[in-house]
């Protein structure tokens, strides 16, 4: 009995520390793995929580990929692959997600336009902005950051109406913003 007990003590003295080190290593590896996994999950969830591009906004022309809509100013029927928003209380236009400004341009039909590239293959564009856009190409923006004011610079859509033409792309293709943003229509 005594001999066995001594053998065990000797065994523990020799290998106990090694066994403990092994257990600690596994525990640390598991903790790191779980932490990394949790962080990944948090990032993707946050990325998909879109915020509205305008506050208290009303949709005046909806997205429709199937049926053309009538454009008074052009006197034409056209497919509308965006959502037009207006607001009586606040013309501020905000980025719908964190991202990078990848284009800022203007022309007579679309007015002043800002394009923002986000994670997960999303790109958003904001047309008919007033002169004096608040961001430049290459700027990093956060979700909810004001990028400009809605206006009537998109000559093909708005006459004296102050509005935003908002578009959302996923992997290079227009998608219905109503599928991602709660515009109160669906
Ligand atoms: Zn529009």
In short:
By secondary structure, this protein is of the alpha+beta class. The protein has one helix at 2-48; strands at 58-61, 64-71, 76-80, 83-86, 92-94, 99-107, 111-117, 122-129, 140-141, 146-149, 164-170, 173-175.
3D structure, described in words:
This protein has one helix and twelve strands. It has one helix spanning 2-48; strands spanning 58-61, 64-71, 76-80, 83-86, 92-94, 99-107, 111-117, 122-129, 140-141, 146-149, 164-170, 173-175. Helices cover 25% and strands 34% of the residues. A hairpin with a 4-residue loop joins strand 7 and strand 8. Strands 1, 4, 6, 7, 8, 9, 11 and 12 form an eight-stranded antiparallel beta sheet that branches. The chain has a two-stranded antiparallel sheet with strand order 2-3. The protein folds into two domains: 1-48; 58-179, Distorted Sandwich (Glucose Permease (Domain IIA)), CATH 2.70.70. The chain is elongated and about 100 Å long. With 186 residues, it is an alpha+beta fold. Zinc ion (ZN) binds at residues 61, 80, 82, 84, 157, 165.
């Amino acid at each position: 009995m005594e001999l066995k007990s001594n053998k065990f003590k000797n065994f523990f003295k020799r290998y106990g520390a090694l066994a403990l080190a092994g257990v600690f290593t596994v525990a640390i590896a598991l903790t790191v793995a779980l932490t990394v996994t949790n962080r990944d999950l948090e990032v993707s969830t946050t990325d998909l929580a879109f915020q509205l591009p305008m506050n208290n906004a009303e949709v005046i022309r909806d997205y429709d990929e199937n049926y053309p809509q009538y454009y008074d100013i052009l006197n034409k029927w056209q497919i509308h692959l965006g959502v037009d928003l207006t607001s009586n209380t606040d013309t501020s236009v905000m980025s719908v997600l964190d991202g990078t400004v990848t284009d800022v341009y203007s022309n007579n039909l679309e007015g002043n336009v800002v394009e923002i590239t986000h994670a997960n293959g999303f790109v958003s564009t904001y047309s008919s902005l007033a002169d004096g856009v608040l961001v430049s190409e290459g700027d990093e923006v956060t979700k909810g950051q004001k990028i400009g004011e809605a206006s009537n610079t998109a000559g093909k859509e708005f006459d004296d109406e102050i509005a935003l033409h908002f578009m959302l792309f996923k992997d290079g293709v227009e998608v219905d913003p109503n599928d991602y943003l709660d515009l109160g229509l669906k």
